Amino acid sequence: MQDVPQERSGADGPPSGKAVSTVRFAGLVFDLDACTLTRQSGESIPLTRGEFRLLRLFVSRPGRVLNRDALLDASANRRFEPFDRSVDALIGRLRRKIEADPKEPRLIVTVPGEGYRFDGLAPALRGEPADGAEVPAEPPAADLAPETALAAEPPQPGTAPPPPSAAPARAPMTSRRWPAAAAALVVLLFVIGGYAWRSDLAPRLMGTATEDKFATAPRLSIVVLPFENAGGDKEQDYFADGITDDLTTDLSHLADAFVIARGTAFAYKGKTVDPKEIGRELGVRYLMEGSVRRLGEKVEINAQLVSAETGAQVWADRFEGERGKLGELQVDVVGRLANSLGVALVKAEALRSTRERPGNPDAADLAMQAQVKRDLPDSEATINEALRLSERALALDPQNVRALTVLAGALLDRVTDNMWSDNPASDIARAEKAIDAALALQPENSSVHYMKAYLYQAKQQWGPMITEGETAIALDPNNARGYEAASVGKFFLGHAEDGLAGLETALRLSPRDPHLPWLQFWMCGFQKDLAHYEQAIPWCEKAVAGLPHVYIPLAFLAAADALAGHDREAKEAAAQLLKVNPSFTVQSWASVHWSDDPTFNARYQRFIEGLRQAGLPEGEKKD
To answer: Quick check: helix, strand or coil at residue 127?
Structure first.
């Protein structure tokens, strides 16, 4: 008979049921001894350590609500403190692996205001176990303290086995009363602690301990403070709070980010705060703060990133939108902020590490410095510097996902941007190895899936490029480059008209991205392919301004001007192109086979004719 793992009735008591290794639910087989999760078909579902521990806790307590404190303790061995959003992010990742529809979860259910409940062993969801075995009824509903959350684990080597079943010795009356007294004391301490926190006594009572929190704060740690309703219009309160909530959630997608949870952040609502004090209290290096103001039928949103170390403003942005479209505006604002903040945080931390540890950077420092270099306008020097820094980071820590991703991106940049690579096949192979290593470490990292899409671009495999781009979007709906990748794949398959919406989304999500010139370049290319030459030209000019060392946007500009009948401008663009790449010829591009799609190839021949009309040298025809 198949048994659900049973709980202990107390920290030192004997097991209340038979511990077993395999649990079946909803067509899945969860093996606690082998630490595996598979479908009944035999397909393996990879789990990270945190996901495994979280699922083990859920199946040992079916049908019971578990709050975030217990879940964080079980999955990360971290006790009650101002939390980050790791539990919610972990739940989201686990749902995507086990739920039929992660947007409408039936196995791991959210209980508003309380936590999460595992319903996978409910009769309607448990499924039929193998060999006709019955799934037993759920274990006794005795509430367990958080420290017993992992009691279903097998005993550690060297520990004494539990005693055989026997009538327990009669405990002294004082020992039976102690649990109730201890529980009452815990409740009292929480009440006192909550009052102290709300009344601003906590920082004074904590004394020097708050200093230690900032000293050990994670590099990319941040709290999103409640946005202020600056106009006094009560109708805007929900909008300001919604931005705070969504931004807190979306920032949890950033690699290596430590984001303080909403509940702790809202304790500061309506209060005048000192960034340095908050940094000491919460153990964060950065604060995100902002305001919402109604101006007639317009709504204005201001946002700032502040250093908790110095109190100085690191970054700021401003948005405007229509009051009647608050829902759309909220989505746009949160997406733009999340993208911009990801860049700003990494840049700020890279500069800080250069200032504080110029002679002794660690792998994380070097990886962030490499990313900042790769984010600079493309040139052979900046790409090579990004490569050098990422290689140094990996020499110190071969499993640094950021360094693996930057290394792959820089190698692919050498191949695709300006053909700076001496050995494209070797660079592509190295990039693929780095991407595969990063995906093995973090299979649900949206940025790494985008990089896999970029790899397929370099290999001219357009279908897989679309798939990886769409995967990146599914994992992080704010990943602007995921939208770009999916759209570019469609471009080379002759569906430029279908890719335009994705590019527009990418531009809306990340209008100040260092990668922006490439988004502008692709908009130029899409409009050119669709014979919208007058619309293509401004995008081409923007791309040329942002990529002064790259000749490809100049080729697109020259062709677009020529096909639009702007002969003088076309010849000027052609002359500028030959300064950047003196060896360029029409045949060097006419001979390249990009795609088997007839629609794309017909449009491509029109582009080649535009290059000829611009006056670029023909060159020798290649076989």
So the answer is: coil
What's the rounded Cα separation, in Å, for the pair 16 and 490?
58
Tokens for 541? 């000019």
Within a domain: 497: no
- Pick the more confident residue, 353 or 399: 399
CB under 8 Å to 340, separation ≥6 — which residues? 315, 317, 510, 512, 513
pTM: 0.57
Confidence of residue 175 (pLDDT cuts 50, 70, 90): very low
Please give the DSSP secondary-structure letter assigned to residue 260: B
- One-letter amino acid at 258 equals F
Average of per-residue pLDDT values in the chain: 77
Give the range of the structural domain holding residue 592, as residue numbers without chain letter. 518-623
In a shared domain, residues 132 and 230: no
Please state, in angstroms and as integers, the Cα–Cα distance from residue 214 to each residue in 171, 294, 312, following that order.
Answer: 46, 36, 16
E strand residue ranges, 114-176? 115-118
Q: What is the largest CA-CA distance in the chain?
A: 101
How close are the terminal C-alpha atoms of the chain, in Å?
70
Give per-residue pLDDT as tens, 388-426. 999 999 999 999 999 999 999 999 999 987 678 889 999
CATH code: domain of residue 306? 3.40.50.10610
- Check residue 302 and give its pLDDT: 86
The residue ranking higher by pLDDT, 602 or 51, is: 602
User: Alpha helices, DSSP H only, in 510-597?
Assistant: 516-529, 533-546, 552-563, 567-580, 586-590
Which two tokens mark 613? 């009309």
Q: Which residues contact 273 (CB under 8 A, 6 or more apart)?
A: 225, 287
| Contacts of residue 532, Cβ cutoff 8 Å, sequence gap at least 6 | none
At residue 340, the 3 state secondary structure works out as: helix
Q: Work out the pLDDT band at 286, boundaries 50, 70, 90.
A: confident
Number of structural domains, the chain? 3
Q: Tens digit of pLDDT for each residue in 181-214?
A: 555 544 544 444 544 444 444 444 444 344 457 7
CA 403, CA 409: separation in Å to the nearest integer? 10
Give pLDDT tens digits for 211-255.
457 777 777 888 888 888 887 666 667 777 887 877 787 777 777
Q: What is the 3-state secondary structure (H, E, C) of 39-108?
A: ECCCCECCCCHHHHHHHHHHHHCCCCEECHHHHHHHHHCCCCCCCECHHHHHHHHHHHHHCCCCCCCCCE
Eight-class DSSP state of 372:
H
The 28-31 sheet, strands edge to edge: 22-25, 28-31, 36-39
> Rounded distance, CA 435 to CA 405, Å?
6
Domain containing 608 — which CATH number? Answer: 1.25.40.10
